[in-house]
Amino acid sequence: MAIKSRVFPLVVFSLIGVLPVSTALAEPPGQGAVLSASCAGCHGTDGRSPGSIPPIYGRSAEFIRTSLEDFRSGKRSSTVMGRHAKGYTDEEIALIAEYFANRQDEGGD
User: Residue 52 is part of a domain; what is its CATH number?
Assistant: First the structure.
């Protein structure tokens, strides 16, 4: 009985130490995916816009990047997109553009 009473706490503490490690191994979403979450409300989670909002799905990273930069600078007029684009750095715009461009590579369905 003395061995069981010593082994049980050892097993429990061993498992407690392993559980957080196994959940930490799940791959977190990339920064592009996190940044693009704000686009989903209008453009859909994969860029396939419901309704009259222009879709992003199927567009190249270059097209998306250039569009966001033009909205940000005011070169391209908009009601909402200019305000959104002004909140992103060049690096963040590139990450968003790559994220949506890769949606078509993954099938997006």
Answer: 1.10.760.10
Using the predicted structure, report yes or no on whether residue 30 has a pLDDT greater than 80.
yes
* Nearest-angstrom CA–CA distance, 53 and 37: 16
Number of domains in the chain: 1
Whether pTM exceeds 0.85: no
Which DSSP string do the residues of 43-57 spell out, in sequence order?
Answer: H-TTS--STTSPP-T
In a domain, 96, yes or no: yes
What range defines the domain where residue 94 resides? Answer: 31-109
Helices and strands: H and E segment counts in the chain: 6, 0
Q: Quick one: 57 exposed, middle or buried, by C-beta within 10 A (0-12, 13-18, 19+)?
A: middle
Q: Which helix (H) or strand (E) holds 83?
A: helix 81-85
Q: 65 near 93, Cβ under 8 Å?
A: yes
